[in-house]
């Protein structure tokens, strides 16, 4: 088995914006004459889509809303998010993100496809992004950081009706990568997910993927219990070693 694709989470892995999201959710709740999030609700919100968060927060406060109204709340938050980022001269991108993206793109995986004569054919490891964030938020950040060209496949919160810890987002990413690269024949077991929250880790695990937990949001020791690899910073990830584990050269 080879490592063929690396799938990044977005909030908490690429951009350090969890504080902004939690603040904007509270602002909308207050505008709706509802109590802001309690500490335990803030913890539950991390790693989940805005739709899932608002559904639960509104239900906890006895507020019943239509899907149309819920979508209006999500759009209001997305617009406020864009305005918040526009205030920032430099986006709070986590150190090591760009280096890891370039490192992944420069590494190759060898495999035989149905049209190939040679077993040694190879191509670059593919990149994807799986997030509960809305597409407009993701594209704004990727455009400003000049990373758009590297993420040909993005699964955003707009694309699925479930939220992490459900695995649908990761499974859809595999499907779209196979559509984008017909020769890839990608299986979930050939993917590495990079996550920062228990909800995201569980989603990737349920999709039968191996996971790197990066301790941006939760302590190292909490992630270590449920991940294949755990790092304090993305710069600590040894991609060559990960590839060797996938290929069976190293047993862990």
Largest sheet: 6 strands, parallel
Q: What's the architecture of the largest domain, going by CATH?
A: 3-Layer(aba) Sandwich
Count of runs of 4 or more consecutive helical residues: 10
- Looking across the biggest beta sheet, what order are the strands in? 5-4-1-6-7-8
The total number of structural domains is 2
In CATH, the topology of the largest domain is named Rossmann fold
- Counting helices, strands and paired strands, the structural category is alpha/beta
Q: Beta-strand level of the residues, as a percent range? A: 5-15%
Helix content: 40-55%
What is the chains' assembly state?
single chain
Report the strand count.
8
Q: Indicate the CATH class of the largest domain.
A: Alpha Beta
The residue-averaged pLDDT reads 91
Radius of gyration: 19 Å
Query: What is the succession of H and E elements?
Result: EHHHHHEEEHEHEHEHEH
Topology:
Layout: E1 5-8, H1 18-31, H2 39-45, H3 50-60, H4 67-86, H5 97-106, E2 108-110, E3 122-124, E4 126-130, H6 135-144, E5 153-155, H7 168-180, E6 191-195, H8 198-206, E7 210-214, H9 220-224, E8 229-231, H10 239-247
Parallel strand pairs: 1-4, 1-6, 4-5, 6-7, 7-8
Antiparallel strand pairs: 2-3
Helix pairs in contact: 1-4, 3-4
């Amino acid at each position: 088995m080879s490592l063929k694709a690396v799938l990044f989470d977005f909030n908490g892995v690429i951009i350090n914006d969890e504080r902004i999201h939690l603040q904007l959710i509270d602002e909308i709740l207050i505008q709706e004459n509802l109590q802001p999030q309690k500490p335990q609700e803030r913890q539950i919100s991390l790693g989940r889509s805005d739709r899932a968060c608002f559904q639960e927060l509104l239900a906890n406060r006895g507020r019943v809303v239509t899907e149309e109204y819920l979508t209006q709340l999500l759009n209001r938050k997305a617009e406020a998010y864009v305005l918040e980022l526009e205030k920032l001269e430099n986006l709070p991108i986590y150190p090591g993100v760009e280096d890891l993206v370039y490192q992944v793109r420069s590494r190759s995986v060898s495999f035989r496809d149905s049209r190939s004569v040679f077993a040694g054919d190879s191509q670059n490891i593919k990149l994807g992004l799986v997030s509960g964030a809305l597409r407009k938020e993701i594209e704004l950040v990727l455009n400003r950081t000049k990373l758009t060209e590297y993420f040909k496949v993005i699964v955003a919160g707009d694309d699925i009706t479930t939220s992490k810890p459900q695995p649908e987002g990761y499974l859809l990413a595999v499907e779209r990568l196979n559509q984008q690269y017909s020769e890839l024949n990608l299986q979930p077991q050939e993917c590495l997910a990079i996550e920062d929250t228990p909800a995201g880790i569980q989603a990737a695990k349920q999709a039968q993927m191996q996971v790197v937990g990066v301790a941006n949001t939760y302590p190292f020791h909490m992630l270590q219990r449920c991940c294949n690899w755990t790092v304090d910073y993305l710069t600590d990830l040894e991609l060559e070693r990960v590839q060797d584990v996938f290929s069976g050269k190293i047993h862990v």
